[in-house]
Amino acid sequence: MTHQLTASSCLVLLTFLSAVDSGRADVLIGVNGERFVGKVVESSAEVVIFQSEIGGRLTIPRRQVRELQLGESSVNSATNSHALPLSQSGSASAPEAKAWQPPGLGKDGFDWLMLKTQEWLRGHLRYVQDKKVSFESDKLEELTFDLKDVHYLYSGKPMFTKFDGKEQVYGTVMLTTNLVEVIGPEQVELARDRLTGITPGGKREIQFWSGKLNVGLNFQSGNTKQTSINASGELARRTPATQFLLDYMGNYGEVEEVQNANNHRISLSYDVRLSRKWFVRPVQAEYYRDPLANIAHRGTVGSGFGHYVFDEDALQWKVAAGPGYQLTRFETVEAGEDDSASTAAGILSSSFEADITSRLTFIHTFAATLASPEAGLYSHHFVATLEFEVKKSLDLNVSFVWDYLQNPQTDASGDVPKHSDLRLTVGLGVKF
């Protein structure tokens, strides 16, 4: 089902677009309507090589290019060039370019997104949540943007939209720099800063899901033979009012064929957003195994309430706390000691994310558990990560990990494991 833009929506859109100026950059418009702003590197009868501000270096077959508009600098430099057969319109200063919009907007059934760089992308919106926009572009495939970098968004099909203090509504969505309008059975127009989430209608379950995977490897031979592997991953299901996260982190290492690391952690949480600042966590759980720390298996389950300390475009910090239960089975124990410990527990967690630059993000997660002395009394899992976007969905990650247990269990040989396990890892990550 295709939805047309209403008269009021068009007025808002054109008013917004009338303020847009393409500057002096080159503009490439594809046959599908996608619009890229940047610099023509090379143009021939077969291909156009274009350096896009958001997409990077693009090589586009000529048959997929509808229009190429050259800014003033490119027009001047083209004097002695025989490789620019397309229109040299100098559109950067053309008044009609200021109100340009994709011909298919509101007509072709696709979602459309315009970035602060004035580039338009056509494709499918996967979600808007936690100030992030996940978008599957026709040309650039899966992309994730900060919400602050998205100046306009139009959904070609009805979606679920959630605002602070209001039940989610269903309809076609139009987002501008200041407003969000939902056109459906219930027409809603509210300030953009009240938006908490947007997700598709869910006809395809896969639309709700996203994930990322990070892997680091180190092999050394010669005087010292050493192997280390670390991996982490996240699988998430998001709707406007809920978020399900499943995380994994594992490490394995050998020095001279003797293990010096072998631990695995799986955690999950399910959050239901009550308002812009508050959420409830009906369930959270964690499984942990580290034989070298004398933990054969440790399971923790609980629930709690949470609060967003910050919920801004480039800064987010949320905390949660609540009661739980923990069961630990030890790898070995001294004679006469119980090989397991079960206890009520208190659980505290924190998740912090801040954009340092457009491509560098700092991410910090912290989870602490208070339990009985027999179960270790106090433990925490601390991760601080610098995530650098190399290209599109490829990241370079540097992480510092600190696992701590206040009262480790003495093993059968009488040795007491160390309280802290510290690691610095470097790896590549992909998002999907």
Extended strand count: 27
CATH topology of the largest domain: Porin
CATH superfamily of the largest domain: monomeric porin ompg
CATH class of the largest domain: Mainly Beta
Structural notes for this entry:
The chain folds into three domains: 21-99, SH3 type barrels (Roll), CATH 2.30.30; 103-202, no CATH class; 208-431, Porin, CATH 2.40.160.40. It is built from two helices and 27 strands. The protein has helices spanning 7-17, 72-77, and strands at 26-30, 35-43, 47-52, 56-61, 65-69, 111-115, 120-129, 132-137, 141-146, 150-154, 159-163, 166-175, 179-183, 188-191, 195-200, 209-220, 226-238, 242-255, 258-273, 278-290, 295-311, 315-330, 340-355, 360-370, 378-391, 394-405, 420-431. A hairpin with a 7-residue loop joins β24 (360-370) and β25. The two termini are 27 Å apart. Mean pLDDT is 84; it is low at 1-5, 10-23 and 75-98.
Key terms:
Porin; 3 domains; 2 helices; mainly beta; 6-stranded antiparallel β-barrel; 12-stranded antiparallel barrel; disordered N terminus; 27 strands; single chain; 60% strand; flat; 432 residues; SH3 type barrels
Helix-strand blueprint:
Layout: H1 7-17, E1 26-30, E2 35-43, E3 47-52, E4 56-61, E5 65-69, H2 72-77, E6 111-115, E7 120-129, E8 132-137, E9 141-146, E10 150-154, E11 159-163, E12 166-175, E13 179-183, E14 188-191, E15 195-200, E16 209-220, E17 226-238, E18 242-255, E19 258-273, E20 278-290, E21 295-311, E22 315-330, E23 340-355, E24 360-370, E25 378-391, E26 394-405, E27 420-431
